[in-house]
Amino acid sequence: MSTVFERELEDLKGTVLKLGSLVEKAISDSIKSLVERNSKLAADVIDKDPQVNALDVEIDEECIRLIALRQPRAGDLRLITTAMKITTDLERIGDIAVDISERALELNEEPQLKPYIDIPRMAEIAQGMVRDALDALVKGDSALAREVLTRDDMVDNLNWQVFNELLFFMIRDPKTVSRAVKITYVSKYIERIADHATNIAEMVVYLVEGKIIRHMAIPGAK
Amino acid sequence: MSTVFERELEDLKGTVLKLGSLVEKAISDSIKSLVERNSKLAADVIDKDPQVNALDVEIDEECIRLIALRQPRAGDLRLITTAMKITTDLERIGDIAVDISERALELNEEPQLKPYIDIPRMAEIAQGMVRDALDALVKGDSALAREVLTRDDMVDNLNWQVFNELLFFMIRDPKTVSRAVKITYVSKYIERIADHATNIAEMVVYLVEGKIIRHMAIPGAK
User: Fold this and answer.
1) Residues A135-185: pLDDT tens digits?
2) How many folded domains does chain B comprise?
3) pLDDT per residue as tens digits for the range A67-101
4) Among A125, B13, B101, B192, who pairs with B45 as Cys (CB 3.0-4.6 Å)?
């Protein structure tokens, strides 16, 4: 006996998940385009970004419509405003996948510096963080959201590991500098994806537990 | 003959501006701590970040309260949801000022690579973008917001200029690599501040003109 509004809220969550899937695919494809040196795939990620942007706008409009029309109470209202904020994070993750693809296009033009090992590992963790943070949103599972927060340090550590390894390349052979710096950028981009996933997870904990854990002294919070 | 709600909306704008001022100060102090090699100032910026975070939470709570209590109509509702999103951008700019301060602390421990010239110029542009985007919000001035968007390319170009100059240092003298890479990070951080200001300006145009210009083919939009 769900009301029209309850169904609308379910649909809204579904649309956020759809945006999440698009963005997850953009992350994995951008990394694949780098690791497999597939510039066609990198161009595809860039071409598909407007789909992400369109869905971002659609969700925003739907949230405004629901608030204006249904005048939701505290809990539902928080769900809707949280959806609006989460959508902004997802859209920016999409932009970062475009950044990674642009670096892939450049790096694919030059000889490969070394096989990519840590970068795909980092990306896999970051992508899993995005997926689980959205899963936590839809299920209202704050324990899962809190668990996502603990993974941010793994990504940060891998980012430093990549940085130090590439520093070694650059110091030993100046010819590698341009490529190596671009790879440190990719590593930084992935770290930012993990930061966005952390932001989403913090908002989910806030939504579910009604507590402000953003900015508190918990792993990954800043 | 303003109503209580109209005064509450003015207060809300005032609080967003207050957060904007805190964040602007954090940007300029973080850059100053780098340029003047003042590690005490860098530590100050890091210590003051909780003030930014507290104000972010306060604005969020006030927005939720206003929506629930006043059931605002379309225009006011958009203003409030936009304020919530803008606040998130401002809080993250505060985080970036912390990142810059952390790099300043590290760089101040080593001999200076070269005088900083483009970095403070970039930071000044980015800071002006933040200030004017918020000014545009408060005045409902979409022309100003659109003008802010055009400045993003200047920051992007300076970022590439800094990058290329530092690349030259790194290639010529491997001993500079660690410092030079950290300075490219600072340059990237400033570019991200400009991106956040661009996001804010796009939201203001959207709010004022009721049009979605986010993601459209305008300078700086992505």
Assistant:
1) 999 999 999 999 999 999 999 999 989 988 998 898 899 899 889 989 999
2) 1
3) 999 999 888 999 999 999 999 999 999 999 999 99
4) B101
Alpha helices in A71-176 (DSSP H): 74-107, 118-139, 142-150, 152-172
Helices (H), ranges, B36-151: 39-70, 74-107, 118-139, 142-150
In whole angstroms, give the CA distance from residue A19 to residue A24.
Answer: 9
For residue A175, what is the domain's CATH number? 1.20.58.220
Contact yes or no for B171 and A174 at CB 8 A = yes
Residue A50 covered by a domain: yes
3-state secondary structure of B214: coil
Residue pLDDT, tens place only, B188-205:
999 999 999 999 999 999
Domain that holds residue A101: 4-209
Tell me how far apart the alpha carbons of residues B27 and B124 are, in angstroms, rounded to a whole number. Answer: 9
* Contact indicator for A128, A58 with CB cutoff of 8 Å: no
Which of 153-212 (B) contact A at CB < 8 A? 163, 167, 170-172, 174-175, 177-178, 181, 184-185, 188, 212
- Whether residue B217 lies inside any domain: the answer is no
The answer to whether position A220 is within a domain reads: no
Cβ–Cβ below 8 Å for B78 and A64: yes
Chain B within 8 Å of A98 (Cβ-Cβ)? yes
Contacts of A163 in chain B (CB under 8 A): 181
Residue closest to A138 by CA, chosen among A71, A207, A90: A207
B37 phi/psi in degrees, rounded to 5: 50, 45
Phi, psi of A4 (to 5 degrees): -55, -45
Instruction: Of B4, B150, B118, give the one whose Cα is nearest residue B65.
Output: B4
Do B64 and A56 make contact, defined as CB atoms within 8 angstroms?
no
Separation CA A109–CA A182 (nearest Å): 12
Judge residue B128's burial from the number of C-beta atoms within 10 Å of its C-beta, 0-12 exposed, 13-18 middle, 19 or more buried.
Answer: middle
B71 and chain A in contact, CB less than 8 A = yes
